[in-house]
Amino acid sequence: FPRTPPGPRQEGAVTLPPSLHLQTLSIPGWNYSSNHTQHMHNLQKGREGPATADLRRVLLRLHHLYEAGEDPVLSQPVTVNLQAVLQALGTVVAVEERSLTGTWDASTTQRWRSPARPPGDPVVTLHPKEIRTFFVHFQEQ
Q1: What's the rounded Cα separation, in Å, for the pair 52 and 42?
Q2: pLDDT at 46 exceeding the cut of 90
Q3: Is 121 exposed, middle or buried (0-12, 13-18, 19+ CB in 10 A)?
Q4: H or E stretch including 83?
Q5: Pairing between strand 123-126 and 20-26?
Q6: Half-sphere exposure of 65 toward its Cβ, with a 13 Å CA cutoff?
Q7: Residue 62 and which of 25, 36, 126, 133 are 20 to 30 A apart at CA?
Q8: What is the pLDDT of residues 78-89, one digit of tens each?
Q9: Torsional sign, CA 125, 29, 35, 7
Q10: Contact of 110 with 100, CB cutoff 8 Å
Q11: How large is the average pLDDT for residues 99-128?
Q12: Which of the two residues, 27 and 130, has the higher pLDDT score?
């Protein structure tokens, strides 16, 4: 069946709280296993086909703009529901936190330890000066 990008369901812009910046919202130019080790194994064995964009998945990077103590209100941690924020793009079915580059599953890295949430949970919290990267998967149209 043909793949179609998540289409607008209603008029509306992506709206974030004032202390957050949408740094990246794009369709990655690659299609690979979310398991980077498996992806590398497939490449080494020559099993990887041509790169194609998965139009049901976007790369989202959010940046908290303020430092701790910089502003009494805007420097506070911010919790957002990505389903609500991205509703104009379609129905979010899964959210995977990634390393800053998007290459690694954040749960497999040792450097980043944020409070554990259920896998796929669209509710995320950003702390002052934090940058977080996600693959957001949308329901097939």
Answers
A1: 15
A2: no
A3: middle
A4: helix 82-85
A5: unpaired
A6: 11
A7: 36
A8: 999 999 999 888
A9: positive
A10: no
A11: 67
A12: 130
Run of H or E residues at 61: strand 57-64
What would the mean pLDDT of 106-126 be, rounded to a whole number? 66
Cβ-Cβ contacts under 8 Å for 141 (sequence gap 6 or more): 4, 6, 7, 90
26-35, 65-74, 113-122 — most confident range: 65-74
The 10 Å Cβ neighbour count of residue 124 is: 19
| Token representation of residue 97 | 């936190």
- What is the residue type of 57? R
- Which residues have a Cβ under 8 Å from the Cβ of 75 and sit 6 or more positions away? 19, 66, 67, 68, 69, 128
Report which residue type is found at 118: P
Over residues 51-75, the mean pLDDT reads: 87
- Asked if residue 1 has pLDDT above 70, the reply is no
DSSP-derived secondary structure letter, 105:
B
Q: Taking the CB of residue 104, how many other CB atoms lie within 10 A of it? A: 19
